[in-house]
Write a structure and sequence with these properties.
heterotrimer, A alpha/beta (281), B alpha/beta (287), C alpha/beta (121), A: 281 residues, 9-stranded mixed beta sheet, two-stranded antiparallel sheet, 11 strands, B: 287 residues, alpha/beta, 34% helix
């Protein structure tokens, strides 16, 4: 009997709460796991894994190409395009590929068959290994409009693993939605400050919309911050772990070291988190 | 009026905390929160209760008129974004719909139309200060446009007599950041001494430079990793970028923040370093 | 020669609009005939590519000279491809700029910015 691959999405709403710290360390302690970095604008996970034998795959989107010998200047394509990616000048059709959303509409409306589609590279995905963890990262080229096609391709990559930890982008935009759509569990990383709590509430809505089982880890915890996490107790939201702020760990992490591979107490801490998640997936 | 944008590249470096400190130190009367995905600046100013709110409409989205639909399925076949689903009838998945209009075009029964959709809300607080902000509905795109509207709302409501305004930007390098960089004079990049921080700093510097914005860098929590702090300073030196401040880690900052107070109002190592940075910025910006 | 200047209100004494692609109106003047009118700009609320749509409209109206405070790179590419001259507006009203144009005192616009890129993230 085959068990489907389980995907754990690690998200936070606010940036800098420790999503990458948590996802990298979680993936490191799980047997037979992969780590996927969906923060395609600023992918940082592999700075920790320093993976080897990296395979690079380009990510393409379709953009239109015009054959001016067939174009009669009717401007139907210009009028149709909702993103203003086309302009018509006498004897020239200008195509703005950074604005193009690859909908294929201009090709459909052209009566003269003057438009066809070609591939344009918008970024890459990288697949490597660090010990026994498969490390998959997506990177968007600077200036490109959207990272969604990269995230789609990241999830299409076949991985011979049982568990996948997905490092989500910050915020609650369409990029985040794309990332958690097919997750089996959502792990929130919350910073116990007014900012952290505010942004948690925003992204909680998104997770509830998709009806995903979820849990919360409080990162950078200290006794003084207990006041800020009353919200979770009041709303019956389970806090799986409170990770104490530790200056040494901050320094190790800021240097790109994977603390669960170095300190047994952190290995146990992340193992406990995984045990709790396993109950739901 | 000088326009100062605060950016970070990486999230969580302290951008909003520093923006709010600058706003208080300068006694700035005009500021905006352009981090429309996760706006936080308003949390630091308790006296904002009265505001004007307006709807923000992004791209139109498709809607299927079930009475006209002949169930041919051509829309689902042509949609490139998997935004149409079939479950006894055809319907649009609004969160996935990109508003391209292909389904409207191909439908043989004219059963599909493109409708206005509220993607977020703009808010304007206007009393002794003018504060412009907005929030995007979750799952939405089109953040660059909303950022532009937040800035425009600020500039439209502020008198030219104001010496300076501060714009709290968003993390990343995507189109909301590009939209916020347009037309600003100075960008203060707040970074942290970690490998992620320095890697993201380099990307955001590249983006900022293409706008000819005058760049300044602040290294926040510099003592969390002095080796990387040194690497950041070397990099800024090579790129001719002015490092205007190095702020030490100070647990008091978060404590005061959580009490709704500004760390600037109290003495402490972060407070002193930030005030020094403020003096340097004033001289550099010329206000 | 047909000249266009972006403006926020339909008034010759109004200052030149700070934005090109999202200016509410363009004042379009046929310098030979001395006839001018205000053209409404449909691109004003476009989420993305406003500069491109505005440029297309000016080109469709046979504009050959644009006097503006700023211009994004997408719009600049379109205008240059159509041989439209882009001049830098001086501080002041439409009238002031038209006078400056007639006395050939306007310079070319050099700083082209990257544009607002107002489409999805």
């Amino acid at each position: 009997m085959e068990t489907a691959v389980k995907k754990i999405a690690v998200l936070s709403g606010k940036g800098g709460t420790g999503k990458t710290f948590i996802s990298v360390n979680l993936a490191s302690i799980i047997d037979n796991a992969a780590y996927i970095d969906c923060d395609v604008e600023e992918p940082n996970g592999d700075l920790f894994f320093k993976s080897k034998n990296i395979e690079k795959q380009e990510v393409f989107v379709k953009i239109p190409k015009v054959d001016m010998t067939l174009c009669n200047g009717c401007q139907k394509c210009v009028d149709f395009c909702k993103f203003n990616a086309l302009t018509y000048l006498p004897n020239k059709l200008l195509i703005f590929d950074k604005l193009c959303h690859s909908c294929g509409g201009c090709v459909l409306v052209c009566d003269k068959k003057a438009l066809t589609e070609i591939n344009k590279e918008i970024g890459n995905i990288y697949v490597g290994k660090s010990s026994d963890v498969f490390v998959v990262s997506g990177k968007l080229n600077i200036g490109e409009a959207t990272g969604v096609p990269i995230i789609k391709q990241l999830f299409k990559y076949e991985l011979p693993v049982k568990n996948i930890v997905v490092d989500c982008p910050p915020g609650s935009s369409c990029l985040v939605m794309e990332t958690i759509k097919d997750a089996d569990y959502c792990l929130f990383v919350v910073e116990p400050t007014i900012f952290g709590l505010h942004n948690f509430k925003m992204v909680l809505e998104l997770v509830k919309l998709f009806n995903k089982p979820f849990g919360v880890v409080i990162n950078k915890y200290s006794e003084e911050s207990e006041n800020n996490i009353k919200y979770f107790y009041e709303n019956n939201i389970k806090i799986i772990k409170k990770i104490k702020y530790d200056k040494l760990i901050v320094e190790m992490n800021s240097s790109g070291l994977i603390v669960s591979r170095m300190f047994p107490e952190y290995k146990s801490l992340f193992t406990d988190i995984f045990e709790e998640i396993k109950r739901f997936i | 009026m000088k326009k100062i944008l605060v950016l970070s590249g990486k999230g969580g470096t302290g951008k909003t905390t520093i923006s709010s400190a600058l706003i208080k130190l300068y006694k700035i009367n005009a500021f905006a929160d352009c981090d429309v995905d996760a706006p936080n600046l308003h949390l630091l100013f308790n006296d904002f209760t009265d505001y004007e709110e307006s709807n923000y409409f992004g791209l139109k989205k498709a809607v299927i008129n079930q009475e006209k639909c002949i169930l041919c399925g051509l829309c689902l076949e042509k949609c490139r974004f998997d935004a149409i689903k079939y479950d006894k009838r055809y319907s649009i998945l609004l969160h996935d719909c990109e508003g391209c209009g292909v389904c409207e075009y191909v439908c043989p029964a004219q059963a599909i139309s493109m409708n206005q959709y509220v993607n977020g809300y703009l808010r304007l607080y206007k009393n002794e200060v003018v504060f412009s902000t907005a929030t995007l509905k979750m799952g939405s795109g089109t953040t660059g446009m909303l950022v532009t509207k937040v800035k425009k709302q600020l500039f439209d409501n502020v008198s030219e007599k104001e010496i300076a305004c501060i714009i709290d930007g968003s993390p990343g390098i995507g189109c909301p950041v590009i939209a916020s960089l347009s037309g600003v004079d100075y960008a203060l990049l707040v970074t942290e001494p970690s490998i992620s921080g320095i890697s993201d700093l380099k990307r955001i510097v590249k983006v900022s430079k293409s706008f000819n914005t005058k760049i300044m860098v602040c290294i926040n929590r510099y003592d969390e990793n002095e080796e990387i702090t040194k690497r950041i300073k070397d990099y800024c030196n090579e790129e001719n970028i002015f490092v205007v401040g190095e702020i030490p880690f100070d647990s008091k900052v978060i404590e005061y923040l959580n009490m709704g107070k500004s760390f600037i109002d109290f003495d402490g190592k972060a407070s002193i370093a930030t005030k020094n940075m403020f003096e340097i910025i004033i001289k550099n910006v010329g206000i | 020669m047909i000249i266009a200047i972006p403006v926020s209100e339909k008034n010759l004494k109004e200052d030149v609009c700070v934005s090109f692609g999202r200016a509410p109106y363009y004042y379009v003047l046929d310098s030979n005939k001395g006839e001018g009118s205000f053209l409404k700009n449909p691109a004003v609320d476009q989420p993305g590519g406003a500069g491109i749509m505005s440029s297309q409209i000016l080109i469709n109206n046979k504009v050959k000279v644009l006097i503006t405070k700023s211009c994004g790179e997408n719009a600049a590419n379109v205008l240059r491809a159509a041989n439209v001259e882009i001049l830098k507006a001086i501080k002041g009203s439409l009238e002031d700029n038209l006078t400056a144009y007639k006395t050939s005192s306007l310079e070319k616009l050099i700083e082209i910015h990257q544009g607002f890129h107002g489409n999805r993230s």
